[in-house]
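Hey L., structure's done. Input below.
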Amino acid sequence: MSKATICLWFDKDAKAAAKFYADTFPDSAIGAVQTAPSDFPGGRKGDELTVDFTVMGIPCLGLNGGPAFPQSEAFSFVVHTDTQEETDRYWNAIVDHGGTESQCGWCRDKWGINWQITPRVLTDAMAQGGDVAKRAFEAMMPMQKIDIATIEAAVRGEKS
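Output:
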């Protein structure tokens, strides 16, 4: 067992979210599901309280705590992709399953968890710094889902 686990607060659908993540991302799975031993502010005795799961090898605990603490952009999973097909697959899985698009490679799933679907070509360009990073950054800014061909063109100094 890992010494650290990310705890994600859900209203009531932690197991459904964990199943979606396990079905969508590699190296992801659902583990133990614990029920509440008694009533609590967000639910009743016997309700699913916690779900152990992994997302791309990251240990997580989903807590069905009720609506008191909604998710925000202050926490997000960053998914590094290598191809446009992979970028599209993850982006579309999240957005087409009740999620919403945002800017610069960010999207939010139907449970409110934020995701950054980030092609490595973008992070590599940003790491180069200077004019390459500036061109890649400026190309990314108007995008929702990242378009790898546009980022590659910007890295080369070509206008799209």
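The first strand starts at residue 6 and ends at 10. DSSP finds five helices and eight strands in the chain.

-- N.
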